[in-house]
Recover the amino acids of this structure.
């Protein structure tokens, strides 16, 4: 590995904050583009897949969502190589254009009722492009910021990039709720869901304008000027024993565990609230959004703290919290919507019927049976049927204020675990590898850990709970098991004071 002495601050503070802002805005928009699909998974399952089996349709949507994660490591290899050969700036400009274009295109695809199985096939292809683009984005942005930052505050400054994933999810939820409010529920479910995808083109344009004004990373520019760039970053990263060892340690000692904690605390939590608990759409999104907003500052707190006490202990503590507390937390969440344990108020039961048009223009009859319970919980059983299809049934739970805020608190605690594992990890990964192969070397373990181990969490967890005889909490064994493996490897093999400058 390349060695040097100390990394002095390479930029003035004003210029450094400009670098962080430009990198973060673009990365936030890429995460928004990537996560808008997951945030709308419940609706998309009714748009792009046949409705005969709603559970299968939802699982198919989650599988398509997961496909974008599975290809992220390939994007890390392709764009990581470009980043180490031609530079950070132009590589993540390219990823931004690919991400924005594919997101915009998803908003234009006709539904299953119009073009049949061509719809999910086209969505899958575009989702794969999104995954490839994101595979190149994060490593570039984290590396770019880290290579501008002073080494003794690298955890603090890179933590702002770490907030963008959660804020991208928050932005996607906010846009969805705003559009749904403006166009109405029926219109949103019919065609309004497309608007958040189409808005991507405007957001990406703004980000491209900002990023075009950025300069190349000074550390990479120095390496390039000195002729120390490598001709084959892939061979250098994975063909040399010492570098490959660090890649494997980063994956199995950190990023795989970090990935399952991230996706359990945010996306699986959303899926669990919407599908297993059947919480009403708007209320479920508000719960996640508020939890995300309250916890986001802790990315920066834990990132800055890692500059003082090291990255490892904070990340391992976050994994341990998930291992110990996920099942108790999710049991408490489930109890809030379990109407079998509540006292019904029979006199308040009412039934309503209404007629509307679905996306295919067919007349649809919707019957809603509403029950009230003594604690203020409301259960709605909704049956929809058109002339050409079988009845589709859905359950919707509306929580009272007290239960709503308890659920927000339970989500907040999970996101707090996320901030512990995710806040310091960009600085941790950057410091493992030398500058001339850093983009490639850090991107691959990050995107395997997050894209494969983490991104598959909602799909695997919900699949496990769908097995005969399974409980609503059996899906948690997957993230708990992966986090436990990473915790053991991380404690044994990662130096507890990892925040060095020897690879600058």
């Amino acid at each position: 590995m390349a060695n040097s002495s100390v990394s002095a601050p390479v930029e003035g503070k004003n210029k450094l904050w400009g670098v962080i802002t430009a990198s973060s805005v673009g990365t936030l928009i890429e995460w928004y583009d990537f996560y808008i699909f997951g945030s709308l998974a419940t609706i998309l399952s009714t748009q792009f897949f046949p409705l005969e089996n709603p559970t299968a349709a939802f699982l198919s949507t989650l599988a398509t969502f997961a496909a974008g994660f599975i290809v992220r490591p390939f994007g890390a290899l392709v764009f990581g190589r470009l980043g180490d050969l031609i530079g950070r700036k132009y590589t993540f400009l390219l990823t931004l254009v690919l991400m924005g274009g594919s997101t915009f295109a998803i908003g234009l695809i006709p539904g299953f009722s119009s073009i049949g199985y061509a719809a999910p096939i086209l969505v899958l292809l575009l989702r794969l492009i999104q995954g490839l683009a994101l595979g190149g984005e994060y490593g570039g942005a984290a590396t770019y910021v880290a290579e501008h930052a002073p080494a003794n505050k690298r955890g603090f400054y890179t933590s702002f990039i770490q907030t963008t994933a959660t804020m991208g999810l928050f932005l996607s939820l906010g846009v969805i709720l705003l559009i749904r409010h403006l166009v109405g529920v029926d219109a949103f479910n019919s065609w309004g869901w497309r608007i958040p995808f189409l808005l991507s083109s405007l957001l990406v344009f703004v980000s491209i304008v900002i990023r075009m004004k950025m300069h190349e990373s000074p550390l990479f520019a120095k390496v390039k000027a000195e002729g120390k760039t490598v001709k084959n970053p892939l061979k250098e990263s994975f063909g040399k024993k010492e570098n490959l060892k660090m890649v494997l340690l980063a994956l199995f000692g950190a990023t795989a565990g970090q990935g399952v904690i991230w996706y359990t605390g945010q996306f699986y939590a959303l899926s669990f609230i919407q599908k297993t608990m059947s919480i009403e759409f708007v209320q479920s999104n508000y719960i996640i959004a508020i939890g995300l907003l309250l916890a986001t500052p802790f990315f920066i707190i834990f990132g800055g703290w890692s500059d003082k006490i090291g990255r490892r202990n904070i990340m391992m503590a976050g994994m341990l919290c998930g291992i110990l507390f996920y099942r108790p937390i999710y049991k408490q969440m489930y109890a809030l919507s379990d109407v079998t344990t509540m006292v019904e108020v029979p006199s308040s039961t009412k039934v309503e019927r209404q007629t509307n048009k679905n996306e295919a223009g067919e007349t649809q009859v919707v019957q809603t049976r509403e029950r009230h319970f003594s604690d203020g919980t409301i259960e709605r059983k909704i049956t929809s049927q058109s002339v050409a299809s079988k009845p589709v049934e859905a359950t919707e739970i509306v929580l009272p204020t007290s239960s709503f805020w308890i659920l927000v608190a339970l989500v907040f605690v999970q996101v707090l675990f996320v901030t512990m594992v995710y806040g310091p990890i960009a600085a941790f990964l950057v410091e493992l590898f030398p500058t001339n192969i850093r983009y490639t070397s850090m991107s691959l373990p990050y995107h395997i850990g997050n894209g494969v181990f983490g991104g598959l969490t909602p799909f695997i967890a919900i699949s496990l709970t769908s097995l005969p005889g399974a409980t609503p909490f059996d899906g948690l064994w997957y993230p708990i098991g992966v986090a436990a493996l990473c915790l053991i490897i991380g404690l044994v093999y990662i130096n507890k004071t990892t925040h060095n400058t020897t690879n600058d």
Q: What stands out?
A: The domain at 13-337+400-493 is CATH 1.20.1250.20 (Growth Hormone; Chain: A;). The first strand starts at residue 350 and ends at 357. The mean pLDDT is 82.
